[in-house]
Amino acid sequence: DGGITQSPKYLFRKEGQNVTLSCEQNLNHDAMYWYRQDPGQGLRLIYYSQIVNDFQKGDIAEGYSVSREKKESFPLTVTSAQKNPTAFYLCASRRTSGYYEQYFGPGTRLTVT
Amino acid sequence: AQTVTQSQPEMSVQEAETVTLSCTYDTSESNYYLFWYKQPPSRQMILVIRQEAYKQQNATENRFSVNFQKAAKSFSLKISDSQLGDTAMYFCAFMKLKGAQKLVFGQGTRLTINP
């Protein structure tokens, strides 16, 4: 089955710790994205990558970092510099030509206390 | 910068009724895509329908259809014969085709279908 996996589904961390969220896709998509969703709000773009070894900041990149060493993988690190890290994080991917819709993973709920 | 506005935070209808969700957007681009995504209680984002701006014909997918008014920058979603499984948050999203092809989302409309 082709798709996007995010692990774990729920993640708990203490304040001051960095934490890495996993995102893997086997759809052979070139572009990958990370979004943050807060209660009652739409999705906001954190980082995106349109090709391996290249990524760009989205609208709310402060306190986050990413890497794109493999086409299939786009991990997101939430650093201790992120002031309000508790949120629902969604990863997405899409082809870069022909079809423009993004396909989403199931998400990771991060709680920092 | 592009913005997407959904003016209805919540809506509620009876099963089998028709419901229309509103979306307006602001852009100076001429080539773009518009999408409606559904997020049920599981929180999985599911694509409902897409519309290419260069197409005049409104997109349809089974019970879901859109009313795309390019000049008015309006993109509403109509759900016919609504079902209990349609209960979800619905997000309107915009993507320009030039440069970085990022999705810009509206705030969402919480739709409840009552039995």
> How far apart are the termini of chain B?
41 Å
Helical content class of chain A: under 10%
Number of strands of chain B: 12
CA(first)-CA(last) distance of chain A: 36 Å
Mean pLDDT of chain B: 94
Poorly predicted regions of chain B are none
**Principal-axis shape of chain A:** globular
Helix content class of chain B: under 10%
Order of helix and strand elements from N to C terminus of chain B = EEEEEEEEEEEE
Secondary-structure-derived class of chain A = mainly beta
How is the main sheet of chain B built?
6 strands, mixed
Uncertain segments of chain A are: none
Computed over alpha carbons, the radius of gyration of chain B is 14 Å
The helix/strand series of chain A, from N terminus to C terminus, equals: EEEEEEEEEEE
How many β-strands of chain A, per DSSP? 11
Count of alpha/pi helices of chain B:
0
Q: What is the mean predicted local confidence, pLDDT of chain A?
A: 92
Using CB atoms under 8 Å apart, which protein chain pair has the greatest interface?
A-B, 23 and 22 residues
**β-strand amount of chain A:** over 45%
By DSSP (H or I, 4+ residues per run), the number of helices of chain A equals 0
Task: Give a structural overview.
The complex is a heterodimer of chains A (113) and B (115). Chain A is mainly β and 113 residues long. Chain A is 0% helix and 50% strand. Chain A has no helices and 11 strands. By secondary structure, chain B is mostly beta strands. Helix content of chain B is 0%, strand content 52%. Chain B contains no helices and 12 strands. The radius of gyration of chain B is 14 Å and the shape is globular. The interface between A and B is medium-sized, with 23 and 22 residues.
Descriptive keywords:
heterodimer; A: about 110 residues; mainly beta; four-stranded antiparallel beta sheet; about 0% helix; globular; B: about 120 residues; six-stranded mixed beta sheet; about 50% strand
